[in-house]
Amino acid sequence: MELQQLRYFDEVARTQHVTNSAKKLNVAQPALTQSIRRLERELGVTLFERVGRNVRLTACGEALQKRIAPLLAALDELPEELAVVAGQQRAAVHLAIESASGLAVDAIAAYRSAHPDARFVVTQEASSRRWDLRVRTVRAESADPRARRFFERIGIAVPAERASQEPLPLSDLADEPFICLAGSRTFRAVCDEACAHAGFVPRVAFESDSPAVVKNMIGLGLGVGFWPERSWGGLDDSSARLASIADAPFARTIEIAPTSGPLSKEAAAFHGFLVSFFEERWREPSPLCS
């Protein structure tokens, strides 16, 4: 069993797609397939099962990935750790950003303006990678007691001419086309659940990875969109307005949590800065009516 085999297996386990994994690894697909089959023969178990054009981990595959993922991550981080020990560079702050990414990146930029030599490693997946600090959306019952939590309501962005001082019942939006920010999985899950309680599935007409595009499309009257009151910033556009939703509670909680182990001095310093940065945003007046 070779290290390269395990890296190939881990990548396929992540994507659950052999062709996409081969492209990312820059290897021929037949070579990747043969590597996986050789690993299966050596271990004497089946690691993947085919599902259409994709593959899915078997129980043995899941067990293997759970064991090797932290080992591979530790190997990847070894050069950095040795460089820190040798005094060649400062320790990087490892961030898992799963929610409020725009605000978290703004915090990184602000911190770097005062600390130009600060180093960051950012990921969207905390499950199998080392992280010092994690920003995510949580349910109240699963919140980490060591974490700092920020509660925010969710409003509906509408064209300015449709804005109203009265909160909108969520059920009134059942037939509306929705313009959504792509990639915001946890936020989407909260919104989808609220819509389900109101008796409908939101009809997503368009997704964009740019908040500016989402705002512009809503301002042009092409649809409406859910928008958190603080973490995504204001609409800042005279063509769109943020309206309150009558359904209660329609909100989410963002959590900033440290890892269970000790933090480096660099991570501890940024942790305090990040919490303060969020607190400052939360002290700003809310664009939603109480």
TrEMBL record:
Residues covered by the HTH lysR-type domain: 1-58
UniProt GO MF annotations: DNA binding; DNA-binding transcription factor activity
Keywords: DNA-binding, Transcription, Transcription regulation
Pfam families: HTH_1, LysR_substrate
UniProt cross-references to InterPro entries, sorted A to Z: LysR_HTH_N (IPR000847), LysR_subst-bd (IPR005119), WH-like_DNA-bd_sf (IPR036388), WH_DNA-bd_sf (IPR036390)
GO CC terms in record: protein-DNA complex
Family: Belongs to the LysR transcriptional regulatory family.
UniProt protein name: LysR family transcriptional regulator
Native organism taxonomy: Bacteria, Bacillati, Actinomycetota, Coriobacteriia, Eggerthellales
